[in-house]
């Protein structure tokens, strides 16, 4: 087993003297290759903060973070930019597609930036387009496709460079239930068949029920963890609801 994410005693404090806020504290987290892990917790718990420090977008105040065996703590801006490009894939709620590029161009952009040769580039696009069922729309522009198709395009772009870690913040937040299910099924398959490692922040117990493990955070601290065992997804979903109600969140806490 290969460890992809390891955090030790991570702390994040916002603000300065007199007006400080501890957004994360004592975060020890280990994620193995091929795991599809959910991050849940009430609004303001620190979920996005955690994702952002793992994404190297935000810097922890103290503690250590290793991704794919490399500590990201002492890297300078140039090293971090290269690290993000080579090792990380991102999926956001609002897609972040470039409107002036076709679906295919959006997907190949990270590879083109990494100066991959055209033949390999075409092959990679073929593979991801099939995984996310977007082959028929490759030549279309973002304004010509649905929200679900946009998110599947964004997911294709996130995985095309074969990142060590895929980070998703509320990827199903703007999708109807059918599109959300399609995306979640694809992410699950990606982790099971291709050993992709995925960390997904979600408010939605249904989305979380596709994960193999869910980490609950509350007030910036790890609250509990729930690993999926032999139970069905429906049974796992009900367990997630139980933890959320213990947290005071509730099933309909969609913010
Ligand atoms: N740049 C910042 N400066 C000061 N405080 C911040 C900053 N960013 C976040 N916070 C605070 O840190 C806490 C955690 O924020 P975070 O965005 O991680 O929550 P979250 O769990 O993602 O919430 P939500 O579910 O609403 O997205 C919140 O109380 C927030 O107000
Ligand atoms: Mg958030």
Textual characterization of the structure:
It is a single chain. This protein has 255 residues and is α/β, with parallel strands linked by helices. It has a single domain, classed as 3-Layer(aba) Sandwich (Rossmann fold), CATH 3.40.50.300. The chain has helices at residues 47-54, 77-87, 103-113, 118-131, 147-159, 177-194, 205-208, 233-246; strands spanning 3-16, 19-32, 36-40, 62-67, 70-71, 88-92, 165-169, 198-201, 213-218, 221-227. α4 (118-131) crosses α5 and α5 packs parallel to α6. The radius of gyration is 18 Å and the shape is globular. The two termini are 36 Å apart. Bound molecules: adenosine-5'-triphosphate (ATP) and magnesium ion. Residues 47-48 line the site of magnesium ion (MG). Adenosine-5'-triphosphate binds at residues 14-15, 21, 23, 41, 43-49, 255.
Widest sheet, order of strands? 6-7-8-3-9-10
* % residues in beta strands: 25-35%
Q: Using the 3D structure, state the CATH architecture.
A: 3-Layer(aba) Sandwich
Output the CATH homologous superfamily.
P-loop containing nucleotide triphosphate hydrolases
Quantity of strands, as a count: 10
Element-level helix/strand string: EEEHEEHEHHHEHEHEEH
- What is the makeup of the main sheet? 6 strands, mixed
CATH fold-type name: Rossmann fold
Low-confidence stretches: none
Give the helix proportion (percent range): 25-40%
Mean pLDDT: 92
Radius of gyration: 18 Å
Bound molecules: adenosine-5'-triphosphate, magnesium ion
Using brief descriptors, characterize the structure shown:
255 residues; alpha/beta; Rossmann fold; four-stranded antiparallel β-sheet; 10 strands; binds magnesium ion
């Amino acid at each position: 087993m290969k460890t992809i994410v390891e955090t030790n005693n991570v702390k994040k404090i916002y603000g300065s003297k007199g007006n400080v806020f501890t957004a994360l504290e004592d975060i020890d987290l280990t994620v193995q290759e091929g795991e599809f892990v959910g991050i849940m917790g009430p609004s303001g718990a620190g979920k996005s903060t955690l994702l952002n420090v793992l994404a190297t977008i935000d810097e922890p105040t103290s503690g250590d973070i290793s991704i794919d065996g490399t500590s990201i703590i002492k890297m300078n801006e140039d090293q971090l930019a290269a690290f993000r490009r080579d090792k990380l894939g991102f999926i956001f709620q609002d897609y972040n597609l470039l409107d002036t590029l076709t679906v295919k161009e959006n997907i190949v952009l990270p590879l083109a930036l990494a100066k991959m040769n055209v033949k390999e580039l075409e092959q990679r696009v073929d593979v991801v387009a099939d995984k996310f069922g977007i082959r028929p729309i490759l030549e279309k522009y973002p304004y010509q496709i649905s929200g679900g198709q946009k998110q599947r395009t964004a997911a294709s772009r996130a995985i095309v460079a074969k990142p060590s870690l895929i980070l998703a913040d509320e990827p199903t937040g703007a999708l109807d239930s059918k599109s959300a299910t399609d995306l979640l099924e694809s992410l699950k398959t990606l982790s099971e068949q291709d050993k992709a490692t995925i960390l997904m922040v979600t408010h939605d117990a249904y989305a979380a029920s596709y994960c193999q493990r869910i980490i609950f955070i509350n007030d910036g601290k790890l609250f509990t963890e729930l690993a999926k065992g032999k139970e069905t997804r429906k049974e796992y979903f009900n367990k997630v609801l139980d933890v959320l109600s213990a947290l005071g969140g509730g099933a309909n806490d969609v913010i």
